[in-house]
Amino acid sequence: MDTETFLKIMEILEDEFEKWKAPVVSLMEKRDKRTPFQILISTIISARTKDEVTAKASKNLFKLADNPKDMLKLSEKDIAKAIYPAGFYRNKAKVIKEVAKDIIEKYDGKVPDNLDDLLKLKGVGRKTANLVLALSFKKPAICVDTHVHRITNRLGFVDSKNPEETERQLMEKVPIEYWNKINDLFVAFGQTICKPIKPKCNICPITQYCCYYKENLNKID
């Protein structure tokens, strides 16, 4: 698949994705009002956690503390209780407290606005760092989660074994002005249509471009 075709797919998804009522769409409506610290913490909470749970857990936590200074005053137990039942909530509580501490001690209370420094924070990988850069600082970044990785491989636009490879290939092939749109579009698409198991190819608007569909046409209901 060439870049022109991939951009056409993005255009189609952009026209369609609000119809799918994906969990990520409701999160998008709230996050523009959040600070970089809140976006960072919400993204940490979101790992292996459904978006609906992430939204509730973040809301509960930010009622108690919505900045590094106040977060540091909370005990790990308080944080864990607030974000339960997010996956690995006890471990995330510890990470959140350490992140707040590092931001205060190393970055003057402000979330770093560059990839290298973000990656130095406890529990922050490339997915989280890129999402913070894109959402908080409007910097070009491609956040590759399980949906972006799965779908771009299914389409045949990338051929990669892990999210890091997917990110690298997308950065090479997609014009920089489109980077920040990729995550939202493919997460919404992956949550509702192009699911990991039993994707809904019968209602998919991009089957004509999809390698997975062509290869599995006889197996799809």
Walk me through the structure:
The chain contains 13 helices and no strands. The chain is an all-alpha fold. It has two domains: 3-20 and 142-219, Orthogonal Bundle (Endonuclease Iii, domain 2), CATH 1.10.1670; 24-137, Orthogonal Bundle (Endonuclease III, domain 1). α3 crosses α4, α3 (36-46) packs antiparallel against α9 and α6 packs across α7. It is elongated. The mean pLDDT is 93.
- The end-to-end span amounts to 25 Å
| Helix and strand sequence | HHHHHHHHHHHHH
Number of DSSP-assigned strands: 0
Mean pLDDT: 93
The CATH superfamily of the largest domain is identified as Hypothetical protein, domain 2
The domain count comes to 2
CATH topology of the largest domain: Endonuclease III, domain 1
Structural class by helix and strand composition:
mainly alpha
What characterizes the major β-sheet? none
Low-confidence stretches: none
How many helices? The count is: 13
CATH architecture of the largest domain: Orthogonal Bundle
Which helices and strands appear, and what pairs or packs with what?
Elements: H1 3-16, H2 23-31, H3 36-46, H4 51-64, H5 68-73, H6 76-83, H7 89-106, H8 115-119, H9 126-137, H10 146-155, H11 163-173, H12 179-192, H13 211-215
Helix pairs in contact: 2-12, 3-4, 3-9, 6-7, 10-12
